[in-house]
Structures are given as structure tokens and as C-alpha cells.
Amino acid sequence: MTDKLKSCRSFLCLENISYEQSEGFEITEKQAELLGDLHFRKIDISDEIFVIDRNGYIGSSTKREIEYAKEKGKAIRYYSKGEIPSTCNMLEMSAQMD
Fold first, then answer.
1. Interval 4-62: pLDDT, tens
2. Which terminus of the chain faces fewer neighbouring Cβ atoms within 10 Å, N or C?
3. Is 12 part of a structural domain of the chain?
4. What phi and psi, each to the nearest 5 degrees, are found at residue 84?
5. Is the pTM of this model over 0.90?
6. In angstroms, what CA-CA distances link 53 with 16, 28, 37, 39, 93?
């Protein structure tokens, strides 16, 4: 879905990296810390963040990132609230069918 949204406006999408433990991919505590820091640096250089909160779910690390973005005065939009740019409505409908 984010690939479809990236092309609908003139902006750069800085996606976060995440690995589910259920995928059998293990990372060290240091690697997890570095990935967390990377996410905060991406927020630092962003004008806004777009939270893809399917069914309104927001995990604990995403909550920390949202709080960080608020502290930095960044605009925050949520997928579950339909805060997708109007030029993307057709893309949103397409993404929901994926």
C-alpha cells in the first residue's frame, strides 16, 4: 500500500524497518537500538508522519515514535482516520482490495 501512496504526491517516503519475531529473524539488542534511533532520525528530517494503523492498532514502538514526532511539532496523519491526501482516494480504494 505505501508504494501506491508514495507516487500520489511529490514526497519522499521514509519507511521504517521492522522485523517480526514470528518471521524467525533475530536481531541483537544493539541492532534494535540502532534501528530505533534510525526511525527517530527519519522523523527529524520529515515534515510529517503517516501512521498506517490498520484497524486502529498502534504498537508500543510506533506509539513512542508518534510521541517523538509530536514533541518535534511534526504533522501526524492516520490511515484509520482516512487522513490520506484526497489525490490518493483511488489509490486507497485499490489498496483496500489488495
1. 555 555 556 666 666 555 567 778 889 888 888 888 999 998 888 888 888 888 988 88
2. C
3. no
4. -90, 135
5. no
6. 14, 26, 21, 17, 16
36's grid cell: 530505533
Number of structural domains in the chain: 1
3-state DSSP call for residue 20? coil
Report if residue 55 sits inside a domain.
yes
**Residue range(s) defining the domain that contains residue 37:** 2-6+27-97
Q: Report the distance separating Cα 82 and Cα 91, nearest Å.
A: 12
* Cα–Cα dist 36/61, whole Å: 8
Length of the chain: 98
